[in-house]
Amino acid sequence: MKFKPYQAVLFDLDGTLLNTLDDLANTTNRVLAAKGFPTHPLDAYRYFVGEGAAKLILRALPSGKRQDDHCIQACIQAFYEDYDLNWNVSSRPYRGITEMLDALSAEEIKIAVLSNKPDKFTQKCVTEYFSKWHFEVVFGARENVPRKPDPFGALEVATLLNCPPSRFIYVGDTAIDMLTANAAGMFAVGVEWGFRPVDELKAAGAQLIIGHPSAILDLLGSGTK
Questions:
Q1: Which of 39, 40, 60 is nearest to 51 (CA)?
Q2: Nearest-CA neighbor of 29 among 50, 51, 48, 52?
Q3: Is 54 left (phi over 0), alpha (psi -120 to 50) or beta?
Q4: pLDDT, tens digit, for every residue of 26-70?
Q5: 71 Cβ neighbours under 8 A, 6+ residues apart
Q6: Quick one: three-class SS letters along the chain?
Q7: What is the mean predicted confidence (pLDDT) over 11-15?
Q8: Residue 85: is it exposed, middle or buried by C-beta count within 10 angstroms (0-12/13-18/19+)?
Q9: pLDDT grade, residue 221 (50/70/90)?
Q10: CB count in 10 Å sphere of residue 213
Q11: Residue 189 φ/ψ, nearest 5 degrees
């Protein structure tokens, strides 16, 4: 059997497997509008998302409201209520993702998801869009568990899969992901199709930048396209 340098792939979710930007932006803009605050264009949300719902709301709020704990908590709660109804309106897998997952399954490569998205919504998204494939572990943001870029979650996945971190490819679209991968001792792969620019990924320690999901397969020595 041909030796494969990597045994598992750990994926970020939003901006990596799924394009969720429209749904996140539309929910947040509805929350802002209901409170009488200015809304933001879609592209602004590329920089608002990535560190969980609370950070998203904090970044979207007017600067004068970012110290108002009552306002922040009310907006976070409103976000959860709206997103719970609208998380799958426009969200879709990126082009080439399903074919890449098919190939990984054929190669018997273990796959997992680690996201800063609230765990409830992370689970919903994976179930809705990726039920065809077996993900060994799916983790979103959980209570009392450090979020990325802390490597705790990535190392927890490695332990659960009984696979050394050095045998993982970590695939993500933000600096947070690249920092997480490097802190965990995983091979950091940044994607061009996600929410953030390539320069950010490189500056944060991306060891490889890919322009299409099929490029992940080259790292496995499969040669599959």
A1: 60
A2: 48
A3: alpha
A4: 999 999 999 999 999 999 999 999 999 999 999 999 999 999 999
A5: 35, 61, 65
A6: CCCCCCCEEEECCECCCEECHHHHHHHHHHHHHHCCCCCCCHHHHHHHCCCCHHHHHHHHCCHHHCCCHHHHHHHHHHHHHHHHHHCCCCCEECCCHHHHHHHHHHCCCEEEEEEEEEHHHHHHHHHHHHCCCCCCEEEEECCCCCCCCCCHHHHHHHHHCCCCHHHEEEEECCHHHHHHHHHHCCEEEEECCCCCCHHHHHHCCCCEEECCCCHHHHCCCCCCC
A7: 98
A8: exposed
A9: confident
A10: 23
A11: -115, 120
- Token look-up 């209520």 returns 81
Structure tokens that stand for 80 in this block: 């959860």
Contact between 158 and 168 under an 8 Å Cβ cutoff? The reply is yes
Distance from the first to the final alpha carbon of the chain: 20
Q: At what angle do helices 175-184 and 152-160 cross, to 10 degrees?
A: 60
Spatial separation of the C-alpha atoms in residues 13 and 139, rounded to whole Å: 10
Contact status, residue 115 vs residue 141, Cβ threshold 8 Å: yes
Looking at residue 76, its amino acid is I
* CB contact at 8 A, 38 and 59: no
Q: Which tokens go with 71?
A: 């306002």
